[in-house]
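Shipment paperwork, digital attachment
Item: protein structure file
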Amino acid sequence: MATALFVVSFLFFFFFRNTLFSYQESTSLFIYTGEYLAKFTDKPGGLIVYLGNFLTQTYFSPFCGSFILALLNVSLWFIMAGAGNSLNAGLLLKRILFLFFFVLLLLFQSQYEHFIHYSLGFLMVAGYFSLIASADGKQKRFIFLSGLPLFYYITGSFTVLFVLLLSCWSLIYKKGYFRFLDPLLLLLVSSVTFFVFRNYLFYQPSGTLVSYPVPFTSFRKLHFSMIILALFFVFLPLIFKLTALIRVNDRIRTFLFPAFSLVLLLLLLFFSIKFRNSDLVRIIRLEEMVARQDWNGVIRQQEESPVANLIAQYYYNLALSEKGLLCERMFNAPQDFGANSLCLPRLNEFYNRSVHFYYSAGLINEARHLAYESMVAYGYRPGNIDMLIKTELINGNFRVAEKYISDLKKTLHYRKNADKYQRMLYRPEAVKADSELGPKYMLLPGHDFFIRPDDRENINLLFLSNPLNLKAFEYRLARMLLEKDYKSAVHEIRRMKFLGYKTIPRHLEEAVVGYANISGHMPDLGGLSLRPEAERDFYEYGSAYNLHSRKKESLDREMKKVSGKTYWYYLQFK
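Attachment content:
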């Protein structure tokens, strides 16, 4: 049975939820230092989060991540089965209920915000309860109970779950006045522990001490599946008692468990497919490619499987900018958010994403600032420490970069990157020779200026301070096109030959043709010329529009089929 559960768990995560691993691995960076450990020792529950972060390192590989989660789930199964045996639970119904719990656990673990320390918390609660439930003699049980302060320090708010579970067990399985005495004793030990921890050891707010890492004391803050799992744990002794009382006919016994197992397996597959958020999966894959700087992959995915999401379209425009194709290819994929998809707000929840825009455009100081804010808000993450190192190297702040590189060298998977950066320390010529960092020098502002709340102003100021920054130039033009200010965009084309352009990017050509047909004259192209097919494509667009214009209800759909990747379509229908 355990082997089957391990295989099902492994296959479920490896094939149906493999993007979960890259997402969660990117949210923490485990550093092998005492300083990093100290961050998790200042409040109860920190150590279980520390252990969870340690195991999250394996999420760098979906295979290893699936293996670890499958191993945890089977361990939990064994512990709970042992507790059931010690409490004389009915074998058949116990197995059925545990199988139901196992499926529920898989669905719970498949959520992107369910981190591995949650599973560790349930595992430790089950293990501690199993030790006490199977102990012989009052003295042994007292020894286990005396370990409650240590258990609380390690698991934090999971102790709330344990206290409720043990109280339920005592009320159901003990006899006489011990049935009520033990829960009262447990409550007394818990209260004294809480008082000492709050007033003498940690000086943390009461809310933190009872709600970290999971707020079991407030159901409104919990996901529905977490509530179900918590209630299952609390009433586990009652479930064991009921299974011991229920008798199942031998005839039914032979097929009940296999039939129930099959039904649950089918339900697991159904829910995995039914509630799979394909758009979220694609966004996470885009973030994986952005982290690897696989810009061609980002462009290909968004053009072949577009996501109508601000973040996805932001990454698409970022990738086009990095490849120098922003005004050439921008409308090959949907642009549903206008100029808002060029850059994201500088808000807490967007720090880790918006930083890429500033780094790409050449606003290195603002990229460094956002990476630092991300580190303060969320702690070390692979993305923010990598960005901090790169921006400090570009700015020549080698002593600061050295500190971050030292931390990166003490990780499991990023030592190779740290070695690469270390070879650049105190060697500006090595930074300039690097294939990624070197070109950033050409994008830096010619003089400093204060970053404004409006990124339109920031890009304009950047271009004014460095007129050779082609990324800033194309971001300006892209914003004009997305805001349908094609007249201003057209009048900027006269600069392009001076900036080194040999041809006019396609979407700007489309804007020129549209402008010429509306105004009746050709704008100054600064010595550049249009491709012969540019006007031909415009007339084909006009012919298709005239053909379908009588059917207003299908006009948008038909024009999208014919010219959905042109600026004309965006200008008229978006």
